[in-house]
Amino acid sequence: MTRAIAFLLVVATLACGREKPNEKLYEVKGKIVSRDAGDNTLRVDHEAIPGFMEAMTMDYSVHGAKVAELPADGARIRAKLHVTDSGYWLTDVKTSP
Q1: pLDDT for residue 5 is more than 60
Q2: Which is nearest to 91 in space by CA: 19, 25, 11, 43?
Q3: Which of 2, 23, 36, 78 is most buried, judging by how many CB atoms fall within 10 Å of its CB?
Q4: From the CA atom positions of the chain, what is the Rg in Å?
């Protein structure tokens, strides 16, 4: 009986560790206004994001790249915006025509 309870606790712990936050993904189009290499963030003046938010200028954390290596300030970009219950961030920041 004790082994069965221990097994169930291990399975429950592993299952909880595999849960992913409810993530939504959006495309962002805009212009890099500035960056903060220390925080790895970009300030982006972006167009409206359909179904999510109006056009505005915001700071975004960047995952998967160093902001110092991204397109220059003033460059038009497109990126993926990841939104979860606990935060938001950009990935795949690329120059856009």
Answers
A1: no
A2: 25
A3: 78
A4: 19
Higher pLDDT, 3 or 35: 35
DSSP conformation class of 71: P
Nearest residue to 56 (alpha-carbon basis) of 31, 85, 19: 31
The Cα 83–Cα 30 span in angstroms is 17
User: Domain 22-95 belongs to what topology?
Assistant: OB fold (Dihydrolipoamide Acetyltransferase, E2P) (2.40.50)
pTM for the whole structure: 0.77
Whole-angstrom CA distances from 91 to 26, 33, 40, 60 are 11, 17, 12, 10
Report the alpha-carbon distance of residue 13 to residue 61 in Å, rounded.
30
